[in-house]
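Sample entry as discussed:
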Amino acid sequence: MAVGHLACAGAYIIFGINVVVCRDIATDGGLEPIVLFSMRALVAGALFWLVSLFAPKEQVPAKDILRLAGAGVLGLFMPQLTFLHAIAHTTPVDLSVMSTTTPIFTMFVAAIFLREPITWKKVLGVVLSFGGILWLILQSTFGGSGASETEPVGIMYCFANYIVFALYLGTCRPLIARYSVVTSMKWMFLFSFLLSLPFSIPHLPQSDFGAVPATVWWEIGFMIFFSTFIAYYLIPVGQQRIRPTLVSMYGYLQPIIAIAVAIWTGMDRLTFTKIVAALLVFTGVWVVNQSRAAAVIPQETTKEKGISEK
């Protein structure tokens, strides 16, 4: 189980840094989000297929390949695409504060699919957290480029991102636990890449790759290798070993890392509005996690895979 915790911690630390890195990519890169996603899926998918050549072979039935395609939509295509849209219209601090609602969404998905009870503490926590998000919406800017202020459209993309990823964590664990990380990821990335092609190809003629600054290319490299290949290797390792709610709770590391890096680099600043929103959101999440039902984790065993896992 310790491996699962370390894997989740490592993944969300990378995600926290990625919030700041992707800010430059989204605002200065000059590439459409769907084009960036296709690049991520192509390179990361190719890396997983390459690694699979040296890993023990696993037979995947056709029905599970289709399920992995659906998992790719919930866990890769939709979350990454909505994130790339969101980061262009929100500040790193605001996005990081809102990301802490993911465990709440995951808990409700688990209640539906895993029949975990919903308690009054969960309801109170949701009300408090949504109060924080509502405060951000009322104080956000309804115009401009989104370079220094959060826009309502960015908040909408954030919500879509967190809800879809919560659905992935809450529904796909049995499927992910059935196969090795490399096997599941190579199929998920393959289908996600194929799904993105009809949307990204029309944007290629307008994409000026030569005009992308060298610094942004380094950031794109970080996004593809660390935030996609490495992080999405680590998340399934955690999924196979600990419950969905616990996996999502490691998302609390993301805002801490992102806010620290954003303020340190001068990309964002703390304001009264952000402090109030953060207090409401974090208080709501804390109340939800005090629920006795959230702490109940049945003992489960995971079949060890024939691959090396960090």
